Each structure stands twice: as C-alpha cells, then as structure tokens.
Amino acid sequence: MTGNPAGSRARTVLAVTAAATLALTASGCDSSSGTSASSGGVVTITVNDEPAKTDPVNRKFFLADVAAFEKLHPKIKVVPHEGQMDPQTFAAKLAGGQLENVFYVYYTDPAGLIAKHQAADITPYLSAYPAAQQVKSTLRKVFQDADGHTYGLPEGNYSMGLVYNRALFRQAGLDPDAPPTTWAEVRADAKKIAALGHGITGYGDYSKANNGGWHFTAEMYSLGGDVAKQQPDGTWKADFDNATGRTVLTQLHDMRWTDDSMGQRQLLQWADLLQMMGAGKLGMYLATADNIPTIASQYKGDPKDYGLGPIPGGKGTLAGGGGFMFNPKDTPDQIRAGVAWTMFKYENPDRITSGDQRAAAAKQPVGLPEPNIWTGAAAAAKTAADKKLANEPVQNYAPFQQALPGIPLDLEPPQAQQVYAVLDTVMAKVLTQKDADIDGLLKDASRQVDSLLAAQQ
C-alpha cells in the first residue's frame, strides 16, 4: 500500500518501469466512449477513478501519475473522469457510448460482466507484464472466466479483522499483544472490558443501514459458513438458516442480554463504532484496517491505542476490494493503452517504495497491513517499504498480519447490499429484543433472500 485512501477505500498507487514501453499503432475507430486515435497516431483513452476535488491530496497524486504516464508513453492520451462504475447505470452507459475505456469495479461485479460479455478479454495483452503474476492468485481469479481468460486487473483488497482498544485491554488485565482469536474469547474479554464501567462497551456490532447484514456475513464466514451458496445449476440460494447462523446470533444475543457487554445503545451504523472507539468507550469490533487512521483523524483517537487482530474463528474472512475492467467496444490499441495505464498506476511493485515516500511526505497513512495485492518479491518489497516509512504503529497490527495467510478470503454474496438489508432486520431484532425468535428470524430472512437471488438470475 502506498497510503493514498479515497473515501473509505484505500488505494494502491503503483507504476510501471520505463522498460514496459508500448509500440501503439494509429486507430481511427471510435470506442463506445467516443474517443479515438488522432491522425498523429495518439491513442486516447478515458479512465475513471480520479479522486474528487474534495480529496485534494489524492487528486494531485492521480493527475501527477497521468502526467508521468503520458511522458513515458507519448502516443497515449489519458482523459480522467471522477467516480467509479455504478451497477445501476452501467448498462445504459455502455449502450449509450458513455462508458469509459477503463473502468473501476468491485469484486462482486466481474463475474456478471464477463458472463454478459460486457468487458473485453485482455489475456493477449498481459504477456508484456510479468509483474501481474505477482498479484495474489485469488484476486486474479476474480477477473477470470472458467477457461482462464482474464478480463481485468486487481487494484486493492481488504479483509475483515478485529479492531481493538489496547489501552482498555491493559485496564481490563488483558494482554494487548494477544487479542482474542475465538468467539468464546471475544465474549470473555468483552465481559472484562465492560466491567470497567464508565459507559464502556466490551464489543460493538451494527444493525442498521446494511452494516448489520455486512457484519452478520463476516461472522458467518469466520465460522466457515456462507450467506449464499451457488447451486449445481449455477443459481444461488440463501445458506444461513442453519446451525452456523444460530451460533452467530445466539452469541450476540447472549453478549447483549446475558453479559450486558454490548451496551444498551443499539441500531448502530458505520460511524457509530468508530466514534465510540475514538472516545475510548469501545473495546472491540470487526473492521478493516483503514478504520484505524479514520478513528484517529476524524474521531480524535490516538493511533497507538489501537490494535488489529485476526477475525475470531479464523475459518474465513470477508474480503473485498476492486480493480479495473475494459470496455468491450475498445479497439485493440485502446485495450493495449488501457492495460499499460492500469499497470502503470496500480500494478507494478517497482514504485512501492516511491509511493510510500510520497504518501508519507503528504502525511497519508503508511504501514497499514492492507490493501496488499502482492505475493513473492513484491510482497517483500512492500513489507520493507512499509517498515522503513511507516507513520502508523505497525507493531500493533502484527497479530492480524501473522494470521492472515492462513485464513481463507471469502467474497461478498451476490446482490450483497440487498441481502445485507434483509439481514439488518435480523441483527436489529436480536440486539433490541430479549425474546427474539432466532429460528423464526433466520427462516423469514432466508425466504426473502431466496426471492431476491431468484429475481436476479
């Protein structure tokens, strides 16, 4: 990671070396985005993911990278657009010729786009970029079809872990260097933290604005379960009305109502737990690494007070992120140019160190354990650069770093946000109603999710 967050999604800002130059021929064909090569042989491509003006540091970085790329490749002109791919408007933009030549997608998008032939096959263009093979295979497969053809390039990833307050751990007599690794340990530690009093909550969880369903999914994965499972015929069905789902909800119910370690305030959404952590009133919650600098910058927490441990249970962790795909109406020259740009900006280990240097100079976070798309020599280069240039307390994240390679990464379910909205209700009732019918809630939610998934297939 080079420490350039955009909103809540951390970005990896990398570049290709001068050796990876391109010989591009002129093209007079328009792509669906309305761009074309000039008579002088310059290939023009539109790309999205330019940070908004409200994010001046990363916008400056982005435009500097455009200039550096165009200097390295004088036959390519990059036209940046703000924003990313919106699934609600994608089809209309593609049909209307408004889709960028290179566009950002989340990891939940590629399979559907590939199946509908709404992205270009870039397999023939990747042989010039051996660094692409150093990206984690699990992330590369997100952009591949069943035959191994590649339709996109990963940019970054995240996975869920346990953010915890090291200061409260010490006060409760717990070891801040040994966060809980099972849900039974989470429950025991939460009771000790809540016993400190003064309005301190041992463990926090969400139940509103789709965040509750998101966390329920992460908790299912942590125990080796699923929320939706693909059937032999390719369709999807809900897969949480089972013993694993009951275990997740029973644990939360007992922590809330028997132990009183989750506090009386419920129906929490994303910012609530960060605010509680920043105020020193929360012991633990599930989150991604980029929550920690946000707690420090927006909610006045001290970064040294926070640790990151592996997700309890350790049988799986919810992983996400995104990358770039290519307009199916691109010309071959535009695909070559788009791949060159994406490799330059996001997928080359040779600028990991300079990226960290740039981020550190701009007081952007350096040293968070994710996003990290790399393996092998590239991963070693990232580790060395982060260690040398870190402005985050990297030693506090060691439990997460050490455990992550052994924990399977599980992507979000299909129709994730709609599924999460259904599961919000389940979480809300368990955390606000002492006599909640867990079996009934799971059964009703399963029927609703089955209907959602069937309608989209």
UniProtKB/TrEMBL annotation:
InterPro entries: Bact_solute-bd_prot1 (IPR050490), SBP (IPR006059)
Keywords for this protein: Signal
Protein's UniProt keywords contain Membrane: no
Segment forming the signal sequence: 1-28
Keyword Cell membrane on entry: no
SUPFAM superfamilies: Periplasmic binding protein-like II
A Pfam family this chain is assigned to: SBP_bac_1
Protein name (database record): Putative sugar uptake ABC transporter sugar-binding protein
Native species: Actinacidiphila reveromycinica
